[in-house]
Amino acid sequence: MSKWVVLDIEGTLSATDQVLVVLYDYARPRLGPWIEQHGDDPVVADAVKQVKELAGHDDVVKALHDWMDADQKVTPLKTLQGLIWQQGYAQGDLVAEFFPDVVPALRKWHGDGVKLAIFSSGSVAGQIAFFRHTTDGDLTPLLEHHFDTVNAGPKREAASYRKIAEVLGSDDITFYSDVPAELHAAQEAGWKTVGVARAGEPYGNADFTPHPTVWELS
């Protein structure tokens, strides 16, 4: 086992529907009110500015909804969603659920001295809230680092994985993901890779060649 294990979330640790249905449905009606109520927050203001620049118009909520409909991993959208989800978890409106094999595997790896980190398109704030409020309790003590498209870069580019390796201070890293393109990028950066083929998930029947493939974590 590598010194570090870095894990994707959606489709790897948790069902895609947890994000595309449960979390998206929670965030969608709250985006407009959140922006209105937190407009003075520098993080929100910067996200709104980015949305207008990327969308090319000033209808921020429409742009956000359009990106959600297309499941586009746009950074300001992920930032705003993360803030809303963070509050939702804190209030008890949301509780994160994982595939049955995930929590036992995380605890075993951690107990064996393997360092764990997350690399997801969801914001770091959203990730931390996700792992803090789960059906298995607070899992954040198991994790050393969180990476997203803001502090690391796009998940399908090798440069992002090289940047993470610099932060971790190690080249002995294994990356688990259900998306072959992400695994290709990590492998190009010199990482070990493992494809996670979950039955019923969007990439469950994908071709993970040349990456070793598992159907559950162990």
Give a description of the structure.
By secondary structure, the protein is of the alpha/beta class. It folds into 2 domains: 4-15 and 95-214, HAD superfamily/HAD-like (Rossmann fold); 20-91, no CATH class. Helix content is 45%, strand content 11%. The chain contains 9 helices and 6 strands; from the N terminus they run E-H-H-H-H-H-H-E-H-E-H-E-H-E-E. It has helices spanning 16-27, 31-37, 42-55, 60-69, 75-90, 102-111, 124-132, 158-168, 180-188; strands at 4-7, 115-119, 145-147, 173-177, 192-196, 213-214. Strands 3-2-1-4-5-6 form a 6-stranded parallel β-sheet, sandwiched between helices. Helix 3 packs antiparallel against helix 5. It is globular and about 50 Å long. The mean pLDDT is 96.
How are the secondary structure elements laid out?
Layout (H helix, E strand, L loop, with lengths): L3 E4 L8 H12 L3 H7 L4 H14 L4 H10 L5 H16 L11 H10 L3 E5 L4 H9 L12 E3 L10 H11 L4 E5 L2 H9 L3 E5 L16 E2 L4
Parallel strand pairs: 1-2, 1-4, 2-3, 4-5, 5-6
The second-level CATH architecture of the largest domain is 3-Layer(aba) Sandwich
Rg result = 17 Å
CATH class of the largest domain: Alpha Beta
Bin the helical content.
40-55%
Overall body shape: globular
- β-strand amount: 5-15%
Poorly predicted segments? none
Average pLDDT number: 96
Going across the biggest sheet, name each strand in turn: 3-2-1-4-5-6
Taken together, the total number of domains comes to 2
- What is the H-and-E element order? EHHHHHHEHEHEHEE
Distance between the termini: 11 Å
Report the structural category: alpha/beta
What does the largest sheet look like?
Answer: 6 strands, parallel
How many strand units? 6
Number of helical regions: 9
